[in-house]
Amino acid sequence: MSGLARLAISIGDPNGIGPEITLKALATLTESERDRITLFGPNSVLRRCAEQLNLSGMLDGVRCNEVGALDPAAAVPGRIDAAAGASSVASATAAIQAAQAGEFDAVIACPHHETAITQAGIAFSGYPSLVARVCGQSADSVFLMLVGAGLRIVHVTLHESVQTALDRLSTDLIVRATQAGIVACQRLGVETPRIGMFGINPHASEGELFGPEDARLMVPAVAQLRSAGHHVSGPTGADTLLANRQHDLYVAVFHDQGHIPIKLLAPHAASALSVGGNVVLSSVGHGSAMDIAGKGIASPEALLRTIYLLNSTLSE
Predict the structure, then answer these.
(1) How many CB atoms lie within 10 A of CB 148?
(2) Euclidean distance between CA atoms 312 and 316, whole angstroms
(3) 309 in helix, strand or coil?
(4) pLDDT tens, residue by residue, 155-164
(5) pLDDT at position 233
């Protein structure tokens, strides 16, 4: 591939900061970079936001696909609304389908709101599961990898209770998540990543002092990965591995194991890649920020970093 990547950007929850950070990011890009981007979402929301930001002229030159049209009564910045939740899923779905059809090289999906989507009656546990569903893949074949502050952390489980995550955790799932992370690292230029496996329990169970889960699930996963020729350490307590910072890829078992260090070190500058899917999709490493939506103060930094990350990766 030569030149810039063809990117589809879905604006996320239209009542969140997605529309604002999208327009601010586009305003920062060059005209040639904007020419490679198509937006997916309600045009009325984008128009209103552009007027507030004095970016209407710029938006006139950007391709926008009308998806997830929203009744004006539901389009209220900061409001958690089922219609807005449904709109965010519709715009992301359309963008993924277009990428699957070969129209785009990757999708960037701006922040969604879990509660709004749930209120819409849509089964949803994050963008990785949506990529899997739209592409006809198993829900357990696409995983989230956060990239920021020099860290790459792939998650075995994501938006579910700890008990639910434990109930479905298996050695095979851990291996598949790690393999998806390895492939993603290779696409990001790390051909032979050094991998650090977080333990399930504190101190990776300290033998089996804190439970048998690490010995039963993580240790066999590490053995399988090593036998496949990968450079793997652990399982070790997440705190110890992160303190040493000696690995290219970390494997987190649970949502908070991976999100806390990224949010601490790169709260507004992380990318959230869905890895293992047939479509390249990234979001940003922060939420829809309903508390500041519509106020014009949201930072587009994470979205810009994601655009640059995908351009540098996919345009080679």
Answers:
(1) 24
(2) 7
(3) helix
(4) 999 999 999 9
(5) 96
Q: Any idea what DSSP says for residue 218?
A: I
Burial of 160 (0-12, 13-18, 19+ CB in 10 A): middle
Closest by CA to 140, choosing from 131, 153, 152, is: 131
Measured in degrees and rounded to the nearest 5, phi and psi for residue 165 equal -60, -45
* Cα separation, 7 vs 106, whole angstroms: 5
Q: In the chain, which ranges are continuous DSSP H helix?
A: 18-28, 31-34, 43-53, 56-60, 82-100, 114-119, 127-134, 162-168, 171-187, 213, 219-227, 238-244, 255-265, 301-314
Read off the tokens for 271: 């990318």
What are the residues whose beta carbons fall under 8 Å from the beta carbon of 126, sequence distance 6 or more?
144, 158, 159
Q: Over the range 68-101, which residues count as b (16 or more CB within 10 Å of their CB) and which as e? A: bebeeebbebbbbbbbbbbbbbbbbbbbbbbbbe
Largest separation between any pair of C-alpha atoms in the chain: 63
Total residue length of the chain: 316
Q: For residues 308 and 29, give the distance between their C-alpha atoms in angstroms, rounded to a whole number.
A: 10
Tens-place pLDDT, residues 181-197: 999 999 899 999 999 99
Which residue ranges form the domains of the chain, and what is each CATH number?
A: 5-136+276-309 (3.40.718.10), 142-264 (3.40.718.10)
